[in-house]
Fold:
Amino acid sequence: MTEFVVGLRGGIGTGKSTVSDLFAAKGIVVADADVSARTVVEPGKPAYQAIVKQFGSEILQADQSLDRAMLRARIFNNEEDRRFLELQTHRPIIEDLMRVLSEATSPYAILVLSTGTGRMAPMNRLLVVDAPAEKQLERVMRRDHNSREQVEAILKAQPDRETRIREADDLIVNDAGPEALEVEVAKLHQLYLNLSGNV
Structure:
């Protein structure tokens, strides 16, 4: 198991996935909560069965997988539904993330957490990806085909930027092009190699 774990946080639409992909391209193992969230609700899994039983077959796509956009819209408008979904998925997601980290053999690993603030076990360091609010809105509207109102509601439900930034050991402000992002990740990759004792 990799001993050094870098937590990666950031609000929706900040570019966490792009940043984690850049680390992965350098051979770093990435445990991503969004990936685990999809894994634990695959057809046949206990969480999938509980969610379909609760919300009905209208939240399924033609291939019987969950319609995540529809589910997201529903839970952000209903606190009770959101609590139910979190109850079904939280523990399985954490277990899946820990499994990925326990199998990691890269010099360090990245643990991508999509919501919340601060560090949790087993993070040794916390990297936050940030972006101007307007850029977040544009990216999510384009990516998920959601209305501005839907995206604003999602952003409002997430922790504020100031809190995330205050808790960060390292910060990437993703407001320029892909080349600038690559430079930032390359610098941090070197730093994490040094900190993990692999240089």
User: Anything to note?
Assistant: The beta strands are 5-9, 29-32, 109-112, 125-130, 170-173. The chain is about 55% helix and 10% strand. Residues 79-102 form the longest helix (24 residues). The mean pLDDT is 91.
